[in-house]
Design a protein that fits this description.
Layout lengths: L30 H28 L6 H7 L8 E2 L2 E2 L3 H14 L1 H21 L2 H12 L5 E4 L15 E5 L2 E12 L6 E6 L6 E6 L5 E5 L11 E11 L12 H35 L1 E2 L2 E2 L4 H29 L5 H25 L11 H11 L6 H13 L5
Parallel strand pairs: 3-6
Antiparallel strand pairs: 1-2, 4-5, 5-9, 6-7, 8-9, 10-11
Helix pairs in contact: 1-3, 3-4, 3-6, 4-5, 4-6, 6-7, 6-8, 6-9, 7-8, 8-9, 8-10
């Protein structure tokens, strides 16, 4: 899609295609979708890009951005009512794309808040839970996190060890969760645990006795994002904090489908930022008496990057249309998550290579996006998991 990332025009008299949107996907967007994209793009240019390098280098989440993100209506943007914007799926995708053009850490924050916390409360929560949490989360006054992944089995949620048992009207929760975005800054965690009835969702509030969150340090990816481990030691959860509308793995897996959809768009933004940087650098860098853009090997790399971005754009656009028409299949999300994350990571690596020695400097964006995308291609289902999802769809055989 078109972004505010600028690429210096090539020297040619004819009208150039947009290097970041070769198939003019922008023309397929509605006026509202274009407005949403442009608004978020300006926010990223004006508010995110000036601070994100420092946040990445010093390993902190720029929390000052939260009120600004909320003011734009980017939290829970697809939810109707409860002070949420009620935008369509394409708009949500474009939000993710522009935010990740800034940094995967910021897009992850919005994805978790919107798709993994607000979505299950909206879809499976009681009216009291919705009224209490959704407006506050939409305004950024309450932050949420999503507790599913565990230390021993990230790709196998069916092997969950965290469990809850009834104690009168309350539940007693024990276990641990790992690699939890927003974990140590969250006011509430939507935690999934085994019960005698099946997997249930619990809203565990910050400060509840026995509940602790420990931030994970020494990350070399998603450094501008908060990642934590959650621990539950005989945590008493009142009955009114249990999500009543779902039992079984359908609950958390449906949330992951929502988040994965946004990721398919988000990584396009990271890829576009890398291609833009590589194009501008190659036009300015003189080697052996000519700009890098005059080199066949460089043109082949740039052309391949643009091809991958175009494919990813068309996949996500069609995925969004399917989602808005109620025809979305989780397998289709797996195809796009697999394709787009792999494309974005390869593009980031190629862009870093084109920049040569400069490519390892944080003064340029490719190495930061490259490091972030190593996480993005892993979380919300590894590449292998999504390949096997597609394989099962094709053959009818579960090979997990």
């Amino acid at each position: 899609m078109a972004t505010s990332t600028t690429v210096k025009p090539a020297a040619s008299a004819r009208k150039q295609l947009n290097p970041l949107d070769l198939f003019d996907v922008r023309s397929e967007l509605t006026d509202e979708e274009c407005m949403v994209q442009d608004t978020v793009a300006r926010f990223v240019d004006d508010e995110v890009l000036p601070v994100i390098r420092d946040a990445f280098e010093k390993h902190y989440f720029p929390r000052d951005l939260i009120p600004k993100v909320a003011e734009l209506g980017l939290l829970g943007s697809s939810i109707d009512g409860y002070d949420c914007a009620g935008l369509n799926s394409i708009c949500y995708g474009l939000i993710c794309q522009e935010l990740e053009r800034g940094d995967s850490g910021l897009r992850s924050f919005v994805s978790v808040q919107s798709s993994l916390v607000m979505y299950p409360i909206y879809s499976y929560g009681s009216e009291e839970q919705k009224q209490r949490w959704l407006p506050a989360m939409a305004r950024g006054e309450a932050i949420g996190c999503f507790g599913l992944t565990e230390p021993h089995g990230g790709s196998d949620p069916g092997n969950m060890k965290t469990h809850a048992k009834r104690d009168g009207k309350d539940w007693i929760l024990n276990g641990a969760k790992m690699w939890i975005t927003n974990g140590s800054v969250a006011d509430a965690a939507v935690v999934w645990a085994r019960t005698d009835e099946g997997v249930r969702g619990f809203i565990v509030e910050k400060g509840t006795p026995g509940f602790a969150a420990q931030e994970i340090e020494n990350k070399f990816s998603l450094r501008a994002s908060v990642t934590a481990a959650l621990f539950f030691d005989n945590v008493r959860v009142p009955a009114e904090n249990v999500l009543p509308g779902v039992v079984g793995l359908k609950g958390p897996l449906s949330c992951l489908t929502q988040a994965r959809y946004g990721i398919t768009w988000g990584v396009i933004g990271a890829a576009q930022a890398c291609l833009s940087e590589a194009l501008n650098y190659a036009q300015e860098r003189i080697l052996f008496g000519r700009p890098l853009t005059h080199n066949q090997a460089i043109q082949l790399k740039l052309a391949d990057m643009a091809r991958r971005i175009t494919t990813a754009q068309l996949l996500s656009l069609q995925l969004g249309r399917l989602k808005d028409s109620g025809r979305l299949s989780p397998t289709q999300v797996s195809v796009a998550k697999w394709n787009n994350c792999r494309a974005a990571l390869d593009i980031a690596r190629e862009a870093r290579d084109i920049l040569g020695g400069a490519g390892i400097s944080a003064e340029y964006v490719p190495v930061r996006h490259m490091l972030n995308l190593e996480s993005v291609i892993t979380y919300e289902g590894t590449e292998t998991v999504h390949q096997l999802v597609v394989g099962k769809e094709l053959t009818g055989v579960n090979a997990f």
